[in-house]
Amino acid sequence: MIRLFVLDVDGTLTEGEILLDGRGGETKRFDIQDGMGLVLLRRAGIGTAFLSGRASDPTDQRARDLGVPRCANGAADKLPLLRRWADEDGLTPEEVAYMGDDLPDLECLSWSGFPIVPSNGRPEALRLARYVTPRPGGRGAVRDAADRVLLANAREREGIHHP
């Protein structure tokens, strides 16, 4: 049973593009369906968190807007933080889904019980995935992942152990 859904941001929750304004500000594009996926997970009692290697004000804002309680921005080494969150919640790796797309996510994908990669993820990440979303990062991949996690949990409650 998945109880915590943690995701990378750039390339997963976004297309991976960063728009700089030349004055130190930046903007990011977020898919509204991805946001609904995170809301649906929360309504089902599944914890959500953002774990980004890059510090970004738009990421903080999106976490606040969606009610995502844990948002680590600028995490150079992601796995220790992911493990700490799991420990704080009393969870095993099998109860944690992690979604990432690139090299900084490989350790977290390997550690989690349900590694998820968007369809446009790097080959190294795709090889570790238990589920590859039909849509690319920033274009509904998080919604695809959320739907799959909800389905997997429903099946497990029914005694069916296939994701």
From TrEMBL:
Residues that hold substrate according to the record: D10
Binding site for Mg(2+): D8, D101
Record keyword Nucleus present: no
Keywords: Hydrolase, Magnesium, Metal-binding
Pfam families, sorted: Hydrolase_3
Superkingdom in the source lineage: Bacteria
InterPro entries from the UniProt entry: CMP-NeuNAc_synthase, HAD-like_sf, HAD_sf, KdsC_fam
Ranges annotated as spanning the membrane: none
Presence of keyword Magnesium: yes
Cofactor dependence: Mg(2+)
GO molecular function: hydrolase activity, acting on ester bonds; metal ion binding; N-acylneuraminate cytidylyltransferase activity
Entry similarity comment: Belongs to the KdsC family.
Subunit text: Homotetramer.
NCBIfam families: KdsC-phosphatas
Protein name: 3-deoxy-D-manno-octulosonate 8-phosphate phosphatase, YrbI family
Native source organism of the sequence: Aminomonas paucivorans DSM 12260
